[in-house]
Design brief:
By secondary structure, the chain is an alpha/beta fold. Helices cover 44% and strands 18% of the residues. The strands form 3 sheets. An 8-stranded parallel sheet has the order 1-12-9-8-5-4-3-2. Strands 6-7 form a two-stranded antiparallel sheet. Strands 10-11 form a two-stranded antiparallel sheet. The protein is globular.
Length: 294
């Protein structure tokens, strides 16, 4: 079993991949379409995205399975195909990655709030367990529980993933900067609270993704490091903060601008650095060039 923790032992900075959602949209994914269904209806397009990040030099790539839990897939009437769609997602990324790069099975939130009683803990656990097992079957080396905002759901996802697969689990939360300058999730969780909760739940790597550009992620990583100086940290930052042009969200930071900030992010304690919304293979290529010199 390949280990990300082992790969990080000598202090090496690993580069992850970039955005998936916007790349799928560029290839024709329409609003209201199920991205995970493309793993079986448009596998060549999904493969092309995965391969583009491998060709850019990423050490690891994700899977097209962010919304692949049965609870999330139920919005499309596809809850009974969760196993099939997640296994296909991992198999595509596995083929693109070959034997030299890691594949991280992406597991996003259900979109339901446990404390509101919208769904039971048992249903959430069972859904994440099905998803995790299928991602491992398809060839994932580790699992990435990402874009979380509530500690209870993240803890269930981590536990389900570990118990179903035995793989290393990474967990990232999404933070926004408040009017007072502090960083919190939409459920009020701070970076320090996240670090303690997900580490106790069994995450091998912790961190943050989406919501912020590389500038803001530097502040987030500093807060995480104050709470936890030792656990490896993964960051998937946006290509700057979003702007609205012609009614659409756009991300303006260039690959060169992103790469220039990545070195500072690594110095602050990030061990794995990649992109989220707005980042492209060109952004990842620039990160590889910058970070491989460290």
């Amino acid at each position: 079993m390949r280990s990300i923790l082992n790969a990080l032992k000598d202090g090496k900075i690993l580069v992850s991949d970039g955005a998936w959602g916007t790349m799928l949209q560029e290839r024709g994914l329409e609003p209201g379409d199920c991205p995970e269904l493309w793993n079986v209806t448009h596998p060549d397009d999904v493969m092309a995205i995965a391969k583009s990040y491998v060709d850019a030099g990423a050490d690891m790539i994700l899977t097209n399975s962010f919304g692949g839990s049965p609870i999330k897939l139920a919005h499309y009437g596809l809850q009974d195909r969760a196993g099939e769609l997640n296994e296909a997602a991992a198999a595509i990324s596995r083929k693109a990655a070959g034997i030299d790069r890691f594949v991280l099975g992406s597991i996003g939130p259900t979109g339901e709030i446990l404390m509101m009683g919208q769904v039971t803990e048992e249903a959430v656990y069972d859904g994440f367990r099905i998803q995790a097992a299928a991602l491992k079957k398809g060839g994932a080396d580790a699992l990435l529980v990402e874009t979380m905002s509530a500690t209870d759901e993240a803890e269930i996802a981590i536990r389900a993933a570990k118990e179903a697969t035995g793989l290393e689990v990474i967990c990232t939360f999404t933070f926004d900067r408040t009017v007072t300058g502090k960083y919190r999730t939409m459920m009020g969780v701070s970076p320090a609270e996240m670090a303690r909760a997900v580490k106790e739940a069994g995450a091998s790597v912790i961190g943050a993704n989406c919501g912020n550009g590389f500038d803001q992620m530097i502040d987030v990583v500093k807060e995480i490091r104050k709470a936890d100086p030792h656990t490896p940290v993964l960051v998937h930052a946006n290509a700057g903060l979003p702007m609205i042009e012609d009614g659409k969200l756009v991300y303006k930071e260039t690959p060169q601008a992103v790469a220039a900030k990545a070195r500072e992010l690594a110095k602050c304690g990030a061990n794995i650095i990649g992109g989220c919304c707005g980042t492209t293979p060109e952004h990842i290529r620039a990160l590889v060039k910058e970070l491989k010199s460290l």
